[in-house]
Write a structure and sequence with these properties.
Helix content is 27%, strand content 21%. With 313 residues, the chain is of the alpha+beta class. A hairpin with a 6-residue loop joins strand 7 and strand 8. The protein is globular.
Length: 313
C-alpha cells in the first residue's frame, strides 16, 4: 500500500488506494511457494492438474531440504531445461550410466497442458550396449566396493536386491516403514515437470527438484537451482533446511559436496550447454528436429510455451 505522499495536498488527483504496488497471486504446494504475476491467471489448484494426485503417495511437504545449490550456466534457460527432461542424451553425455540405466526404456507421459513425467528404469542395462549386463556387473556399478559384501539370492535380481537394500537404508534413516514400497519408487528416476520451469522428482531414494530461470536479460545465460530433499524422520522435529549455496564462476557442481555423486553427473549435463547455445545461433535451419517419443516432453513444453506467447486462452 501507499504509505505516504510528501505534500499530499498537491496531488488531489491521486487516490492512495489506487497507488499500490502490483500484486501477485501466491500459492503453496508440496512445501514450495509459487508466484504468478498475472492477476487473471486460473486458480493454482486448477493449474496443477493431476500433479497433487500423483504425489499423494510421495508428499513433498514431508521432506526437508538437505542441499540447495545455485549456478549460472552459459545458455538460455530453455536449453538447460530441455537437458533434464529426457533420457535420450544418456548414451552421449552419461556413458558410465549405461550399465545401470535403461535409458531407451524410459517411459514418457504428458498430462494436460502443464504437467508431464518420465520414469527412467534403474538397475537395468541400456539397449545401447552390445551385451547383456549381468546382475554382478549392475551391483558393482551401483555399490562400488560395497558390492563385495552383497549377494543376489537365487530367484532374485540385482534390481530387487538393490530395492531391498534401499528399504533397509531408508527405514534406518527415517524410522518409517517402506516394506510396501515398490522397487520403482525406490530406485527409478521418476521426474515430473510443471510448466514453465519446475521439475520435482517423485519416489523415495533421492528426491530432487530443479528450477530454471533467465539470468536477468541475458538470453545466453540462465540460473539453475538444484534442491535435494530427504524424507523427514518419523516422530521427530523437522531438521533445519540446508543453506543456499551460490557457486562462483570458477566452481562446478562437483565443488558442492552436498550434491554427492550427482555433482559429477550435473557437470556432464552442463558440458554441452555452451556448445548447444552457440549452435542455435549458428544454425541456418529455422527449426530443430526432435524425436517423436523420447523427446515428446520437449515438444509438449514448446507447444505450451508457444500458446502462452501467442496469448491463447
Amino acid at each position: 500500500t501507499l504509505r505516504e505522499i510528501p505534500c499530499a495536498w498537491d496531488f488531489p488527483q491521486v487516490d492512495p488506494t489506487d497507488f499500490c504496488l502490483p500484486e501477485a497471486q501466491v500459492a503453496t504446494w508440496g512445501g514450495f511457494v509459487f508466484v504468478n504475476v498475472d492477476p487473471q491467471a486460473v486458480p493454482f489448484s486448477e493449474y496443477l492438474e493431476a500433479l497433487p494426485w500423483h504425489f499423494a503417495q510421495w508428499p513433498l511437504d514431508e521432506r526437508y531440504l538437505t542441499a540447495h545449490v545455485v549456478r549460472i550456466m552459459p545458455c538460455n534457460w530453455k536449453v538447460a531445461l530441455e537437458a533434464f527432461i529426457e533420457s535420450y542424451h544418456t548414451v552421449a553425455v552419461h556413458p558410465q550410466l549405461l550399465t545401470t540405466s535403461a535409458d531407451t526404456l524410459t517411459e514418457y507421459d504428458v498430462y494436460g497442458r502443464h504437467v508431464s513425467r518420465m520414469i527412467n528404469p534403474v538397475a537395468a542395462g541400456s539397449e545401447h550396449l552390445d551385451h547383456e549386463v549381468a546382475d554382478a556387473a549392475i551391483m558393482r556399478a551401483t555399490l562400488g566396493a560395497d558390492a563385495a559384501g552383497v549377494e543376489v539370492a537365487p530367484g532374485a535380481t540385482a534390481r530387487s536386491t538393490l530395492g531391498d537394500l534401499a528399504r533397509i537404508a531408508l527405514a534406518e534413516r527415517t524410522g518409517r516403514d517402506f516394506s510396501e514400497v515398490t522397487d520403482s519408487e525406490l530406485l527409478d528416476g521418476i521426474e515430473y515437470f510443471l510448466f514453465p520451469n519446475f521439475m520435482p522428482w517423485a519416489g523415495y531414494l533421492t528426491a530432487i527438484a530443479y528450477r530454471f530461470r533467465p539470468d536477468g536479460h541475458d538470453p545466453d545465460s540462465c540460473v539453475i537451482d538444484i534442491m535435494m530433499l530427504e524424507p523427514t524422520p518419523e516422530n521427530q522435529p523437522r531438521p533445519p533446511a540446508a543453506p543456499t549455496r551460490y557457486l562462483a564462476p570458477d566452481e562446478t557442481w562437483a565443488d558442492a559436496p552436498e550434491l554427492g555423486f550427482f555433482g559429477r553427473i550435473f557437470n556432464q549435463d552442463g558440458s554441452t550447454f555452451a556448445r548447444i547455445q552457440r549452435g542455435l545461433h549458428a544454425s541456418v535451419r529455422p527449426s530443430t528436429n526432435l524425436a517423436r517419443y523420447q523427446e515428446s516432453r520437449i515438444r509438449h513444453f514448446h507447444a505450451t510455451l508457444d500458446e502462452y506467447i501467442a496469448g491463447e486462452d
